[in-house]
């Protein structure tokens, strides 16, 4: 791997001019270089520290695992968590390094759908539109993830502190909407608060990790190593198969390290984008993967008996109370964990609104001209941001009618994101093997590039194979895994759009790598 100072690629032939590509910028009439604008009209103002923290906070891998690990305990158990964290970490890093290399070649807000089109061996516009629907759909539904986690944490805290409280579905729905309002509103003043916001979130992400580790080691009873390394649970889920249970248990870890492309969708606002965005992706994957492995291992060794807490909606809260004996400590630590998800939601709104905006600029959405609008004063894609907020609100209201329907819709996130990574990595691998390779940017994996790409593809295939499986048998309408059918609906929607009018209206700057 190497970083160099290469700038620009004379052998890239721009076929059409459209949305942002690379580091194109122009100096405004004031001549102030600090106010340089990208070709899209958005201003580049995000510095290195902010862009690194941006990606790290969105993944929030150890935090995500901390509030969802109960699913892996009933499917796979401690052995699945321990070994699965290593596989998920190395797999996420392989995917992240592959994306970083692509980002260095072509740093663009559209990311996966632009790369798929630019590198496709045939039918580039078709692959671009299909990939765009998959990526945009995945991230729009992913925006409901943090509000649902926050709602679960808030209701769990209410139950923990008030034994008489019985949460209703409409309580959860309103909490989801309420938790969305502050991050959504802050996004309207995104530029003014970004640096302080990201630094605060990054510091809290690391400091709380250290505190949690210390609390678990100092107060928690130490488990036998055999419990951590050899205990495999497979009877609880109904599958009665060790291999299937291990594979399903792995998904809790893969979910925690998925989403490294989030920072890519901010490319038009990042200074020195060709070097800083790849670095952010690499640090996002490596730092979060390492923290996930460490936290998962420490938690397994020091969480104590789980018989009384495994059935609770947030086992970590009761674990902290059980090992410390303090309600105050459990409340404070859990509340600080919730704050990090507020930071992550703020960043997700920013990232997804840019992705929706640039896809609309390429006529990839219905009413594209409306969603491609950039507010002249705020210099933000306000209409795209409103669309994302509306989607989260509608999904939150669906929860009132059916929690199953809500969970079915947001289950699209992980499956679609993994597929969105697979296509461009496959295409860049084919270019490397068949030649000539595309002109590399400042970050290049060199001789290890092909093995890393191959490992990333194998990891993605293995993970995607497990995602449509139901977690529990026998299957009912309430525990059915709807990720596969919903993903199929998104693909059918993309195909319908293509054949009806997308093949005529969808336009994008396709880069030919000569």
UniProtKB/TrEMBL annotation:
A single Gene Ontology CC term: membrane
Keywords: Membrane, Transmembrane, Transmembrane helix, Transport
The protein's name: Amino acid transporter
InterPro entries reported for this sequence: AA/rel_permease1 (IPR002293)
Positions of region (Disordered): 1-38
Membrane-spanning ranges: 45-62, 82-105, 126-150, 170-190, 202-223, 243-260, 281-303, 309-329, 336-360, 380-401, 408-430, 450-469, 481-500
GO terms of molecular function: transmembrane transporter activity
């Amino acid at each position: 791997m190497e970083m160099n100072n290469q700038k620009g690629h004379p052998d890239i032939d721009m076929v059409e001019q459209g949305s942002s590509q690379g580091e194109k910028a122009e100096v405004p009439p004031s001549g102030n270089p600090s106010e340089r604008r990208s070709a899209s009209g958005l201003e580049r103002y995000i510095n290195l520290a902010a862009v690194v923290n941006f990606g790290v906070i969105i993944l929030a891998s150890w935090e995500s695992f901390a509030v969802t690990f109960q699913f892996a305990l009933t499917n796979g158990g401690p052995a699945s968590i321990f070994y699965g964290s290593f596989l998920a970490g190395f797999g996420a890093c392989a995917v992240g390094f592959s994306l970083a290399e692509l980002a260095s070649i072509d740093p663009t807000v559209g990311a996966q759908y632009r790369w798929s089109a630019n590198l496709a061996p045939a039918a580039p516009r078709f692959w671009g539109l299909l990939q765009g629907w998959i990526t945009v759909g995945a991230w729009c539904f992913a925006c409901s993830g943090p509000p649902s986690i926050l709602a679960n944490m808030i209701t769990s805290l209410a139950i923990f502190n008030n034994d008489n409280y019985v949460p209703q579905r409409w309580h959860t729905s309103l909490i989801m909407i309420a938790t969305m309002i502050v991050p959504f509103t802050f996004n309207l003043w995104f530029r003014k608060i970004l640096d302080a916001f990201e630094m605060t979130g990054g510091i809290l992400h690391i400091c709380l990790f250290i505190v949690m580790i210390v609390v678990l080691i100092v107060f928690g009873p130490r488990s036998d190593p055999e419990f951590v390394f050899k205990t495999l649970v497979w009877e609880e889920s109904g599958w009665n198969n060790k291999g299937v249970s291990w594979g399903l248990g792995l998904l809790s870890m893969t979910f925690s390290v998925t989403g490294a492309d989030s920072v890519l969708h901010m490319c038009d606002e990042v200074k020195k984008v060709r070097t800083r965005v790849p670095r952010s992706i690499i640090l996002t994957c490596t730092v979060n993967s390492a923290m996930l492995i460490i936290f998962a291992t420490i938690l397994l060794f020091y969480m104590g008996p789980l018989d009384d807490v495994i059935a609770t909606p947030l086992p970590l809260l009761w674990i902290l109370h059980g090992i410390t004996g303090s309600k105050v400590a459990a409340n404070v630590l859990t509340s600080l964990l919730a704050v990090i998800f507020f930071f992550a939601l703020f960043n997700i709104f920013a990232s997804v609104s840019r992705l929706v905006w640039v896809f609309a600029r390429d006529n990839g959405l219905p009413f594209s001209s409306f969603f491609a609008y950039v507010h002249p004063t705020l210099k933000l894609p306000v209409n795209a941001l409103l669309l994302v907020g509306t989607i989260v609100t509608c999904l939150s209201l669906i929860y009132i009618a059916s929690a199953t329907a809500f969970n079915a819709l947001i289950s699209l996130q992980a499956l679609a994101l993994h597929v969105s990574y697979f296509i461009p990595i496959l295409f860049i691998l084919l270019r490397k093997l068949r030649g000539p390779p595309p002109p590399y940017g400042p970050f290049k994996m060199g001789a290890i590039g092909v093995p890393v790409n191959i490992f990333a593809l194998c990891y993605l295939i293995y993970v995607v194979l497990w995602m449509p499986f139901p977690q529990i048998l026998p299957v009912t309408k309430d525990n059915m895994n709807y990720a596969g059918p919903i993903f199929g609906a998104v693909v059918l929607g993309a195909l319908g759009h293509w054949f009806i009018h997308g093949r005529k209206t969808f336009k994008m700057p396709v880069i030919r790598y000569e």
